[in-house]
Design a protein that fits this description.
By secondary structure, the protein is α+β, with helices and mostly antiparallel strands. The protein has 19 helices and 13 strands.
Length: 712
């Protein structure tokens, strides 16, 4: 923590001010009451340098950021603020030891991660002998409010009836739950909980620190001779505003604004940069199916629209970072684990490609994340110059926090508090049971794949034994063959005639036909063994990897559950007799609509996931056994006329597998296991396998040079 504090003291965050038509808010929640001059043309600037040549794996987690920022200081004293709530910190965590509501603060750095700010006590309301003035430490972002934002505008008159409650009711419409300004209430919950860090507590207690986004269809009643640039700017702002407004329908369930689409991550290639060295670049293709209207107008079905861009792992990290800041109220899938060794091996690159594809598809399937502006940019930006310019901007924006919940709209009385309380208890029980069951399923599925490898060995051994029988060539003794020396001597005493037939008589056509048909069966069993091996290594590995998508749902939705339960507690406080606070209750309902919609999203996705997984497994098994049946039927036909009769027309040719009888292929290669899930308590691969791979990387293998080879 000390390194983060030192880093926070040394630099200030960028203060980004976007210009536009901003409505003055004079409600009780005056943290959003601020004005911006539209004519002086001055803005606070920040210079951000983005290193596109980062390593394929993001920097260490202890580093401040993926991107290095060179930010102009706003002032040496920081931004003035005032404490809203009492706070008792822990000195061992570099927190402010004691802050009371009303204390004057200086915010040195607004965001140091996880909802915390670096603050300095400028003036205490307590006795000056306390010695707390001038103390520097960490303070939760939701425990203070900036005072520099309160500016006076000369000549501006605010109607007495204007309030945040009224303006939001007008913007939302009759069917939207109204949100008002709260009465002051203290904070007593765990400051590390997601209820606090996501901004839900700040929203419940005092509303949003920003105005809600104006409807995108607002018209301009001013001068009709506005320039094209102004019109374009309003169009862009309207599109962005629409992307940040989220709607919950009856259910509660998220409203789908955009149709679903899928993303392919494919064609990985190794690149080299002079700054960061080698890295892996992936091709990311978004596939948008043609609408039904397009297909009705044309005779042929319209081809799907495809957008292809190039992305590396650090780009996915940047996307995930931005999404977690912009969408604090939803459960985002975790990124794949980092890898520092062997990250250019074929097995790892393919595993990473699959993990990234599963990650991005889980993001785009979410009804809210699907139309996030940063996601659209990630999937559509083809210009490296534009990427280096725009992505650092997204990452420099402050977290949405309470403003996310301020822009969630839902019908009034969309849920019942008692139902919401019972639903979350059932949800927790269910997700824990699902997670436990899936972990067991993943382990069993690994054993099923190993059984397929053992079946491959058995089929191959059966093939060798049959071939040894009809050729009189001994099968090399091995622990897996079950043949001892005496049995081997008996096996080699058989004889064949000059035509290669399994018979002591020369010119025996019956034995020639039998021998060639049995040889065909032996070769078929080898192909069956290959099918078993390939099925376990490729088809079943994909299903095994896909099981990670449904693993650990309780951990993934832990933040949603925490926010839901904490909001219910606040809701019950706000409706207590004698302490009623309708405005706070209304904001609690907004958060509960969000969390309930997330639970419904999990329900929908769980059904889709397990349907897809089960169908994928059954289709793979059907295709696998159909291939085996086709080969077995072909071998069986060799014993029926006319094929059987035609076998006597020429001598028997040696089988391609006869040479393997001395060295049978009965020791298969290591069976690759899925990369562990981020939330796995222990890796899925045995420790011995990891050690073996590490030693192989150092000492080399028949197919791969060793690391030391570069120095020898």
């Amino acid at each position: 923590m000390s390194d983060e504090v030192k880093s926070a003291v040394s630099q200030h965050p960028p203060d980004l001010i976007s210009k536009g038509n901003i409505e003055f808010d004079s409600g009780l929640n005056t943290s959003a009451a601020w004005t911006v001059s539209l004519t002086d043309g001055s803005t606070r600037t920040s210079t951000t340098t983005y290193h596109d040549s980062l390593s394929d794996e993001e920097p260490d987690e202890n580093s401040d950021s993926i991107y290095e920022e060179d930010v102009e200081f706003q002032s040496e004293q920081g931004r003035p603020a005032r404490a809203l709530h009492n706070f008792e910190g822990k000195p061992e965590f570099r927190e402010l030891t004691s802050v009371e509501a009303g204390d004057e603060l200086e915010i040195v750095r607004e965001d140091v991660g996880e909802g915390w700010s670096l603050a300095k006590v400028a003036r205490c309301r307590r006795d000056r002998d306390t010695g707390h003035e001038g103390e520097l430490g960490l303070l939760p972002r939701s425990y203070y409010i900036f005072t520099a934002d309160f500016t006076r505008s000369e000549g501006l008159e605010v109607p007495a009836t204007h309030s945040r409650l009224r303006s939001r009711r007008e913007a939302s419409g009759d069917s939207i739950t109204p949100r008002g300004s709260p009465r002051r209430r203290g904070k007593s919950l765990n400051r590390f909980s997601s209820f606090v860090t996501s901004g839900a507590e700040e929203w419940v207690l005092r509303g949003s620190t920003e105005d809600t986004i104006a409807p995108s269809n607002a018209t301009n009643d001013g001068n009709q001779n506005d320039t094209d640039d102004d019109n374009n700017r309003q169009s862009v702002l309207g599109a962005i505003a629409e992307a940040e407004r989220h709607f919950v329908e009856a259910g509660p369930v998220w409203k789908h604004k955009l149709p679903s689409f899928r993303v392919l991550v494919h064609s990985p290639s190794k690149r080299t940069s002079t700054l960061s060295g080698a890295y892996t670049m992936y091709t990311v293709t978004s596939v948008f199916e043609a609408s039904s209207h397009d297909t009705e107008e044309s005779e042929r079905p319209a081809s799907p629209l495809r957008i292809t861009v190039q992305r590396r792992f650090s780009h996915f990290v940047a996307l995930h970072t931005a999404l977690t800041r912009f969408l604090p109220g939803i459960a985002l899938p975790p990124l794949p684990e980092k890898q520092y060794a062997g990250r250019f091996s074929d097995d790892f690159v393919e595993a990473r490609r699959g993990d990234l594809e599963r990650y991005i598809n889980r993001v785009v399937r979410h009804p809210i994340a699907r139309y996030a502006e940063v996601l659209t940019f990630f999937l559509g930006c083809e210009s490296d110059m534009e990427w280096k310019k725009q992505m650092p901007y997204y990452l420099s924006l402050p977290p949405k926090g309470s403003s996310f919940f301020a822009n969630v709209y839902h019908p009034a009385f969309n849920l019942d508090a008692d139902d919401a309380e019972e639903a979350v208890d059932r949800f927790v029980t269910h997700t824990r049971a699902v997670g436990k069951g899936v972990q067991g399923l993943r382990n069993i599925f690994g054993k099923v794949r190993e059984a397929r490898i053992e079946m491959s060995k058995a089929e191959r051994l059966l093939s060798y034994s049959l071939l040894s029988l009809i050729t009189a060539k001994p099968l090399a003794s091995a622990p897996t063959t079950g043949i001892d020396e005496e049995d081997e001597e008996v096996a080699v005493k058989g004889h064949v005639n000059e035509d290669g037939a399994w018979c002591w008589r020369e010119g025996c056509e019956e034995c020639l036909k039998l021998t060639k048909a049995m040889q065909k069966t032996s070769e078929t069993l080898q192909s069956v063994a290959d099918l078993y091996d390939d099925h376990a290594r490729r088809t079943q590995l994909v299903t095994h990897e896909s099981l990670k998508n449904v693993a650990h749902p309780s951990t993934l939705y832990a933040a949603v559950v925490d926010t839901h339960k904490s909001t219910l507690s606040r809701y019950h406080d706000s409706i207590q007799e004698g302490r009623e606070d309708e405005e706070m209750a209304a904001r609690c309902e907004t958060v509960l609509n969000t969390t309930m919609a997330e639970m419904e999203t999990y329900h929908t996705q769980k059904v889709e996931d397990f349907q897809e997984l089960t169908k994928e497994h059954l289709d793979g098994e059907i295709a696998f056994y159909e291939q085996i049946l086709n080969r077995l039927r072909t071998a069986r036909k060799a014993f029926d006329s006319p094929q059987y009769d035609m076998l006597s027309m020429s001598p028997r040719q040696p089988s391609i597998y006869e040479r393997e009888l001395e060295h049978p292929r009965l020791t298969p290669a290591h069976l690759s296991q899925p990369c562990p899930h981020v939330f796995d308590s222990a890796p899925m691969r045995p420790v011995s396998v990891a050690i073996q791979e590490g030693v192989g990387m150092l000492l080399g293998s028949p197919t791969r040079a060793s690391v030391f080879g570069k120095f020898w």
